Structures
1.
Amino acid sequence: MTKTSRHWNNSDARSLLLGEFHDLHGRSYHSYQEAEWYVWFLGNPTRYAMFFLFLHKYGKGEMVSYTDLTQTKKIGQINLKIDSIKSTIRDALELKYINSYKSDDDKRVTLYDFNSGIIQEVADYCFCMRRNRMMESAKYIHLDTTLKVSKELNEAITKDSMLDALSSIVEHTNRAVEAKLSNKNQLKLSSKAKKK
Amino acid sequence: MKINKRTWSNLDARSLLHGEFHHHYGQGFHAYEKSDWHIWFFGNTTKYAIFFLFLHKYGKGEMVSYTDLTQTKKIGQVSLKIDSIKSTIREALELGFIRSFKSDDDKRVTLYDLNPDIVGEIADYCFSMRRNRMIEASKFIHSDTTLKINTELGEAIRSHGGEIIEAISSAVKYANGALERAGKVVTLSKKKN
């Protein structure tokens, strides 16, 4: 097994493991737990890997090609097997989770895309996941972290490439907090954000 | 399928789907992609559900009982099957990922816990996941979101009342501190009347 460069004591480990469970638990707060597409796509590692490939391509406004599928990796960094790709794509087409098209450039090439009938639900699922992650992160930092975990997170997020993005999220959350507090006349802003 | 209350334009949908992929991609940044325990626990939905049950119990300083296992649900809110639980636990014991103990209160009861040899790696994996999530969330809000998504996220945060506001306030303070140390503080935090 790979060695860790960081060392976690028992208290840190408990905080991190419990936090990870809370993240998983938070991920269940969406309306699609029993939706057919959700159960199907997240049902095994091959479909799971393909689901995220389809998200990626849809987000970029592109379609999924056979080459994309063969380059996709599942848990353990293992490429998807050709037989598995073929049967999964056939299943997804039959279940109408995806559509197939012939490429404009080369009619021999088939391309795949999400069925537009499920896009709204998939997008809403993605929104719920993002919202749940944000809330869990905020709660973890507020209540469940340890000094060591906090320090290490600081280390990780003060890298140059992160500063602009972090600055933006701080501004965003400050606005949300200020809007809320101005409605309720409560004084719960962090001292930094209130400083004059 | 259920009807959702929110509607997303094509632009919003693309942003959300792409963001979710980025989150998934970010989850790959850890040192345990090829670790035996990672591959094994994430290999199917039963093992995955059991893994998070072990995280939960370890975090609380408790052990996993057979009752906990039978109450665990996997994708689709389906309870784990008894045969599947038995074979998975047997395999995890054989592979040395978990250990079994007899309960102090009742010697007929077997309890399970993560093997301490892999707890350090699992904790580091959890840290990497948390770090990656924070970085991805910051990047999404900074670069990839849309006005509608921002509004809906703000709405969701506001609708969760005082507790989440306190948590966010705490996170803001935390992030402000990180930014100040790097000498790059956002305008709102520096604002003077």
2.
Amino acid sequence: MNILYDERVDGALPDVDKNALLQALRTRVPELEILHQQEELKPYECDGLSAYRTTPLLVVLPRHLDEVQGVLRVCHERRVPVVARGAGTGLSGGALPLDKGVLLVMARFNNILHIDPAARIARVQPGVRNLAISQAAAPFGLYYAPDPSSQIACSIGGNVAENAGGVHCLKYGLTVHNVLKVDILTVEGEHLSLGSHALDSPGFDLLALFTGSEGLLGVITEVTVKLLPKPQTARVLLAAFDSVEKAGRAVGDIIAAGIIPGGLEMMDNLAIRAAEDFIHAGYPVDAEAILLCELDGVEADVADDCERVRQVLQQAGAIELRQAKDEAERVRFWAGRKNAFPAVGRLSPDYYCMDGTIPRRELPGVLHAIAELSDEYGLRVANVFHAGDGNMHPLILFDANQPGELDRAEALGGKILELCVKVGGSITGEHGVGREKINQMCAQFNSDELTLFHAIKAAFDPGGLLNPGKNIPTLHRCAEFGALHVHAGQLPFPELERF
Amino acid sequence: MADEGDFDDSATLLEQVNQALENATPLRIQGSNSKAFLGRTTAGEILDTRSHRGIVSYDPTELVITARCGTPLAELREVLAAARQMLPCEPPSFGDATVGGMIACGLSGPRRPWSGSVRDFVLGTRVISGHGKLLRFGGEVMKNVAGYDLSRLMAGSYGCLGVITEVSLKVLPVPRQCLSISLEMDSERALLLLAQWGQQPLPISAACHDGERLHLRLEGGEGSVAAAHERVGGERLDASYWSDLNEQRLAFFDEDQPLWRLSLPNNTPRLSLPGRQLIDWGGAQRWLKSDAQAAFIRQVVGEVGGHVSCFSHGLSDTPFEPLAPALLRYHRSLKQQLDPRGIFNPGRLYAEL
């Protein structure tokens, strides 16, 4: 299956005269840095989903807001599609360029404009790295909570565009919960401020609408985030189980005990062994599943919670239970989990990372079904799971050099996502739809729902010039793709009873 | 037989919307009408959502509850309390508010600055659209970034973009320990202390200053609450203070003058305005009882980056802060796209929408 832009089902794109566009940009935005030669464009042909590549028509690297505005105006007048990009670490191809479009790189807007510790906010440019915000806030005892695993490299503009998550979402929320205000430029280059430095703002909640809109509604030019006081302490427990079902139930038991851990992660045996082999975190390699449970907050509460969680885990049938005795061990426990992806990558030439979410109670059934699909497609799957919030990352192992294996991996991935939808979950918890999951959107939403999404797009970008082909599939694409797939959880012949 | 406390009446609501679309009749979407005092008066046929009611699903270990729009908020609270859980944003009831109205107006209570707002707890919705379809957005999972976030857009949209028929909300366990205290001090000192405490990991979950005293609520584990109390001091306060504040039953709200809500950056110093003020949300929300002109209040508040809404009905034709022209244009465009026939609460939020 090829997911590159296909004008036949994704909609015709205007033909652009590259030289005329280049000329217009040079005239109208004289200081703008423009890349236009093949060898300069090459490094920008993909984002973090590197299996898919398209060379953009042009790459522009503005340094000033009026340059961004100028680019948008020129492109709007000439009907040229624009794909905005931050650090390019996204995993769903949300910043995959178009060969008939301009790639607008916002990475040079990398200044932290203001940190206000009394107001507990940071005002930053969109190209500022996620981790850089927490580093700048650290002298005040504050930090920015959402921590996607790419936080060392990913930019805040991209975080807002994708509504990025991380391992602490259950307790601290997603990007949408931690942003106060976003400044954008519309497709016409008009400036809008969404949200405010107060906790709410008049009118519709366009801030919520724009967060996670994947660059289809506007270009982010500035972000104000909330900062939180750093938790006094964090402790981590590691529990091993002889079945994934028991580990899954233990997660529910912790919540039922009234405890919301800062992080709650689960790994299955293949992931445990891969991580142990790579990092030597001290994981029990015979366990069918491990849980990592981090409790953070004020010292006295954390000590109480640790004791409670210990009891819960023991009652839930943990075969081994360890508490990191010091900060070094805590970091080591986490290192195994945080390096699970590259660790799994050592087992196989390539791997494909999925991002479905499910209601937690469905975990045992879904893992069982994934194991069956894995056998059916003849590809191994390692499971890493943000267990606290139901976000699973099955990693499909394959070898792209073996003919047909990439296709099989994609097909298996598609099946897993449809399974997530079927049990009441979602095709994407934090990586976004981008280009990668454009077909699976047809399984999660029906044509009336997609029509409403297109109506929203039309309110902000009626010409469809901002990041076309991403996030929301055309009805035409779904008509072609949907015929082959389970739709919205309904099996073919829904009138038949099934047991 | 269906219990009247648990009844799926979405087909009737959908039929009424389709009728209204056919006849181009504006609708006034209404639950218990407990927040009729908010926003502009709208003409139109009443679409009563209360027949569509009941908890659809609730599994405490999933931390998610799904309820139909006509479900009384009080019922939702009771069901959660029985499992020692809560809706952390503490939406007010104003008598007999429904879940649908709670989402549509998006008002949050004293815990808001620490817990997040109503919209922050919305995970998914079912909505009757301006094209006469019953649609589902979001879902019952904590993380879901597929498509645009229609569900959170619905929160606080005052019914102007569609009829919310069902909502899934994230819920949380009730903290193990809760202690309310009050300390005598003036508002300058209270705001100063709150700014300092805000930068430290203290378990504050409500902070209000009434002109003479700072009222605080501490919530968390036994250890953190005891330690914070020791540090901060103060006299014990009955926890009912917070619901009286939230439901606007404090004596402050009884006075005859118009009531204004000021939403401000949390560290805004004391504002000099005629009338009396009550500081809530640790400084980010202030209530003003004042005879001053709307334009004057808006000017003072606008200068510090805040905005104003009028909570006294009929006093102003623009009870909500007017939008900048460009923003208004995109609001109209969005309204036009989602409600092309203009039948959903026309004019409730702004005359132009």
